[in-house]
User: Fold TonB-dependent receptor from Pelobium manganitolerans.
Amino acid sequence: MIYTYKSVRPINGLTTILLVATLISLTAKAQSLTDSTLHLKPVVVSAYLSENKLFNLPSTVTALSKTQIEQNQGTSLLPVLNTVAGVKMEERSPGSYRLSIRGSLLRSPFGVRNVKVYFDGLPLTDASGNTYLNLIDQTALGSIEILKGPDGSLFGANSGGVVLLSSQNPKQEINVNGSFGSYGFYRENVHLHKKHQRYQYTLNQAYQYSDGYREQSLMKRWYFQTQQQLQYTSKANIKFSGFYSDLKYQTPGGLTEKQASENPRQARPATASAPGAKEQQAGIYNRSFFGGLTHFYQLSKSWQHHISLSGMSTDFENPFITNYEKRDENSLALRTFFSHQHNYKNSLSYSLNVGYEYQHSRFKIRNYDNNGGVEGNILNADLIKNETQFLFARFKTEISKRLTAEISGSLNFNKFDFNALPESNNQQGYGSVKSDPELMPRMALSYLFTENNAFRAIISRGYASPTKDEIRASDATINPDLKAEKGWNYEIGFRTKTSSERFYLDIAAFYYRLNDAIVRRVAANDEDYYVNAGGTKQKGLEIELNANLWNGASLFKKADWRMASTFSNFKFRDYIIGNENYSNNRLTGVPKSTFSQSLEIALPQNLNLGVQHYYQAKTSLNDAETVFAKSYHLLNATLIWNKKLKQTSLNIRLSANNISNVSYSLGNDLNAFGGRYFNPAAKRNFSFGLGLSL
Assistant:
């Protein structure tokens, strides 16, 4: 067995109720404390095109600061994103990441789908809904805002949520960092920011390398990012944001439970009918350039205009077990909107956003025989064009600084064109698929019962068309009949805090009824394809608590505790394929509960200690609900020493991961053929880092 840690019972429904009641009680007691302690700044988010205090925002949003990203920083964004309730990031092997918000992992066996991602306000997700999140180096980000649940108000088609990535906060400094660790891990990065009177620029370079825990799991990435901004008048500025990423990672493939138990470090071995991952040199090669220009103009005191033009070019190669795939991908995006804000004597205010976003992506996809990692005879060659566009509008009003109400929506259009390239051997299934216009309305309100207690309610519609990787999966067969998934989400939430902002609790409960859910299946020849399940019933509860436990001059100068719990009752409904009826089975790949907590302590002598614990309940790995990944616990710790030396700051970092040496899979293969579900993750490992700031 590869999952052995079973000392703590999974959290059940009664425990959930008791936990929520305890948290509310603790926070209520904390509110009775005097406010002679340090008053902290309220969390402010910019997710809705202007800065808003998170506390009374009628949305379920989590904001991660630069400090949080750095404190949880490892070899990827995974540790910090897994501290967010409702979010689950996985790593099947170094560089092979998956991101799920509220169960969207179901249709994302590889990469990121069903989640809309923006980078510095530019759409990083292509027209078909696919996002190469693994291209970005984690040190290049200054903040992350995560909007949970379908949100088409400003961001168009999605049914999982929205992730907004912002590059590093501008500071006039030079940072140089290097680190190394177990399993051949090495990384270095250099950050430079300069600001002049009207012009500022940021440069970020990084290189990361790892041999990996398993055979055939080497990963390396070279990354360069820049942001240039010119304030050419007092009312207007123009900004360029972009990056180039050269990513290579090997894919060791899934193992059966027996194989993982006998030798978890092996790559997928050959069988009588198929070669192994090492023999086929299975892996991903992705060389991408992403960039865009954004122009901002203050039209008047209350009116603003934004417009951006961005694009992405990707050279993608994927030798895998059954064939060798090459892709030439190019995407173009235009986004523009007007914003208006007005206040009436502090008793009434409102804001209005109206805009349009257009994306066009062009994919040339060729499949060849894979002769031991070398392309052979051509099998298929297709040209796919995808065009999406949406109009959006949002109206928000605030009355007496207590009631905040929002009504918004987007009207979405989507079109696919399929054509054979001249060298194609397959001339079947080509043409166009044009979806009917889809309206994604959203209605939300938030009410402050007291200055420190807020209730919110949200009704929104989710919609997401299939990606090009689902319409044309690894079997290289085009399936134009695959339907978009859509449904309604109903949500209530409660926030409470102390006046000093030292304690903050956010609870959200939702019910998402999704129709035509897209599900991955794997054929006997090990190639994947996608089908529409009848739908899903997704009921969830999310709890986040941030607490400043101590501010003083004793042994603990400062102690902060963060906790995030997710409880998911996600089930299929009306899901029948042939003679198999999967209705009322658990949603594949979604655990019933996850629990994350971190304690960050500021010690004397400029020492900072961070400890993180993560728990995941057992998880169904196939639609039939006959194979499970067992529950596991992870424990990580980081010790940081900072020392100021005149005009230089020295930073030394020591990290230990999987301290309890648990055997587990950080990312499983869903509905895997031949029982090859498991991708064993690294055992106990360490890293050491050194940084200089000038």
In short: The domain at 13-693 is CATH 2.40.170.20 (Maltoporin; Chain A). The chain has one domain: 13-693.
